[in-house]
Design brief:
Elements (H helix, E strand, L loop, with lengths): L5 H24 L6 H20 L3 H19 L6 H32 L4 H7 L5 H19 L7 H4 L7 H10 L1 H9 L1 H4 L3 H22 L5 H20 L6 H28 L17 H15 L5 H14 L4 H29 L16 H24 L2 H4 L1 H4 L11 H24 L13 H7 L4 H47 L6 H24 L1
Helix pairs in contact: 1-2, 1-8, 1-13, 1-17, 2-3, 3-4, 3-8, 4-6, 6-9, 6-11, 8-13, 9-12, 9-13, 11-12, 11-16, 12-13, 12-15, 12-16, 13-14, 13-15, 13-17, 14-16, 14-17, 15-16, 15-17, 15-20, 16-20
Length: 549
């Protein structure tokens, strides 16, 4: 059954391969942590849930795995729950993922209500019978779920904070595997998106915006984990942009997803090796000159860096260029806009990743007192070496030697011959030139200057905005959190003064009136006789009035 579904098979290979390397690496990285058994339990939960997500034959099975992955994510982020930053990051991830999960759940409800099934074959076979608005609604709701899980705009703010888990293992789980679930969901739902141009356009816009958010924010951070995290946000943006192009981009997006799993995994494990050598420090301003002390880490990390920035003939070069080609091949204004955004993102990626390399491995040693850098044990370096081979050759294998398009033909159909608006060789030269400009800019602005140990306070507005993640948290707080707080306070006030006030007021009225009426029951005969006399007078008066009328 697995081989009959090439898309699931590709993800199973990615999950099991990366998961196995994480297990081996974690033996060395978590060797002295007393809570390592708890960590491995969470890790196994994650792998099992992710496999269920990609191997299920219906959207309901996918949703069960989806929630299992979310639970494992929450547990890993909050692994050191006594740290306020970890607890806060876990809650943030939980809430933002729940927003996306509501969208996925509503999409599944809508499928069942309209089609009577949630199985892939049933949904994809009958989706063409639905009204266009219904199909668009399903596509947009699925996209909302994908944005939450994959850290895409407008739900991208949780992913960088997820680095609070057992770094870099938790970071790698989120960056190389879990966040690809959103790309998998869009690609798996290709027959739905093929029926709705509107939903596909929104996927394109989300991918392009997220790509730029990640690329810009990555240029200003000094935390090695967060630089790589924003790189992940940006690269997943490339994948969303690709699958949003429809049949022309499905395979390109998935090819970049698979190669990204190699070089991003290598980069995160390399970052963990650096942290292992630097007593868990993450501030790159306290690194420098580590290439001599960590030769294996330097080489493997460097190959991942070259693959990520799209250095010619390494993995990222083949798959990223394929996405840019597919965007430009649209041939319209939006095709040029999307292609231009992707090319600009490549230049920014080259800049911030070269900045990371220079601040970490080159220049003067800026280590704090008592730090003695040393290479990591073999349990950590061997997975990094294996991933380095993927960083070098996976792109060529998936695009040229064993084309992924042929492997995925049963899923997406036979690929059509692309009508290139711009020659692929020209695109390759332009992208490489932009990448080189990004590297050169980093060399000029970072490599030729002394790196200050303390981050400068007086910076440009652009840098300040990038340091604050382009104010994503501020926007979320202003648009959603504070209005939600105000609404909650208003509802509490209405409940206390309105609902409870009405109930309590009625009770007080009845209690007060009964106590006052009770005073008439005083036990004196004269009072009762007077009452009877008064009643008789009233009755007699009423009778006389009626008789006289």
């Amino acid at each position: 059954g697995l081989l009959s579904d090439p898309l699931s098979a590709a993800f199973v290979l990615l999950i099991t391969g990366v998961g196995s390397l994480i297990h081996v690496y974690s033996i060395g990285y978590m060797a002295h942590d007393p809570a390592r058994r708890r960590f491995f339990a969470y890790l196994n939960l994650f792998v099992a849930a992710m496999l269920l997500l990609v191997l299920g034959n219906s959207f309901v099975a996918l949703y069960v795995g989806w929630e299992g992955v979310g639970l494992a994510s929450y547990l890993l982020i909050a692994f050191w729950y006594t740290r306020p930053a970890a607890a806060t990051a876990a809650k943030k991830a939980f809430i933002m993922n729940r927003v996306g999960d509501v969208g996925l759940a509503l999409a599944i409800f809508l499928m069942f209500a309209q089609l009577g099934t949630t199985d892939y074959d049933g949904v994809f076979g009958e989706i063409g019978t639905l009204a266009g608005g219904t199909v668009t609604a399903i596509g947009l709701l699925l996209l909302l779920g994908a944005c939450g899980k994959s850290g895409q705009f407008p739900l991208q703010a949780w992913l960088p904070d997820a680095m609070e888990g057992p770094t870099p293992v938790s970071a790698l789980i989120h960056a190389a595997t879990m966040v690809t679930a959103g790309v998998y969901l869009i690609a798996r739902s290709a027959p739905i998106y093929d029926e709705t141009t509107t939903a596909r356009t929104v996927v394109l816009a989300v991918g392009a915006v997220t790509l730029m958010i990640g690329a810009i924010a990555g240029c200003a951070y000094d935390d090695i984990k967060k630089v790589l995290a924003y790189s992940t946000v940006s690269q997943i943006g490339y994948m969303f942009l690709a699958v949003g192009l429809g049949p022309a981009g499905y395979v390109a997006g998935l090819a970049h997803l698979l190669t990204h799993g190699f070089f991003k995994a290598g980069l995160f494990l390399g970052a963990g090796s650096v942290m292992h050598a630097m007593d868990d420090q993450v501030d790159m301003r306290r690194f420098g000159g580590l290439w001599r002390k960590l030769p294996v880490t330097f080489v493997t990390f460097g190959l991942g860096y070259l693959a990520l920035i799209g250095f010619p003939f390494l993995s990222g070069y083949f798959t990223k260029d394929a996405i840019i080609e597919a965007a430009l091949d649209r041939g319209d204004v939006w095709g040029y806009v999307l292609g231009g955004v992707a090319v600009l993102g490549a230049g920014l990626t080259a800049f911030y990743m070269t900045r990371l390399m220079l601040m970490t491995f080159f220049g003067r040693a800026r280590w704090t007192d008592g730090v003695h850098p040393h290479e990591s044990p073999a349990t950590m370096t061997l997975p990094m070496v294996v991933l380095a081979f993927g960083s070098v050759g996976a792109g060529a294998l998936l695009v040229s030697v064993f084309p992924l398009s042929g492997w995925l033909e049963p899923v997406f159909g036979e690929p059509e011959e692309a009508l290139h608006v711009i020659a692929p060789a020209t695109i390759g030269i332009v992208v490489t030139a932009v990448m080189a400009l990004g590297v050169l800019a980093a060399l000029l602005f970072v490599g030729r200057r002394e790196v200050p140990v303390t981050a400068p306070v007086r910076v440009s507005p652009v840098t300040r905005a990038a340091r604050n993640a382009l104010y994503a948290d501020a926007v979320n707080e202003s648009l959603f959190m504070r209005p939600g707080q105000w609404l909650t306070r208003a509802l509490v006030f209405f409940d206390n003064r309105g609902v409870d006030g009405a109930v309590n007021g009625l009770a007080a009225t009845l209690g007060g009136s009964s106590s006052r009426l009770g005073r008439a029951q005083n036990g004196f005969v004269r009072s009762y006789a007077l009452g009877m006399l008064g009643g008789a007078v009233l009755v007699a008066g009423a009778l006389l009035a009626v008789t006289a009328g």
